[in-house]
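Subject: design request, 77 residues
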């Protein structure tokens, strides 16, 4: 999910499920009406217990008002 706070901030909420103790690095983007990237934030996510899903909330600083936020990728090294 996402919430546009104002012209310079957007919040994204997403779930991550990986193996216990694994760290995933996720890149979240805020997009403008023309689908251009107006903000980007990376976050490291650690899942502490087996079978658990971690819900993350990330604030993305934006260059102009976004209309949506998406998870671009999550990578496990």
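Subject: RE: design request

Done. Sequence follows.
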């Amino acid at each position: 999910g996402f919430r546009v706070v104002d012209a310079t901030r957007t919040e994204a909420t997403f779930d991550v499920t990986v193996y216990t103790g694994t760290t995933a690095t996720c890149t979240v983007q805020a997009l403008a009406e023309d689908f251009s990237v107006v903000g980007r934030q990376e976050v490291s996510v650690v899942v502490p217990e087996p079978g658990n899903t971690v819900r993350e909330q990330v604030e993305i600083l934006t260059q102009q008002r976004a209309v949506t936020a998406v998870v671009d990728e999550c990578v496990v090294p």
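DSSP finds no helices and six strands in the chain.
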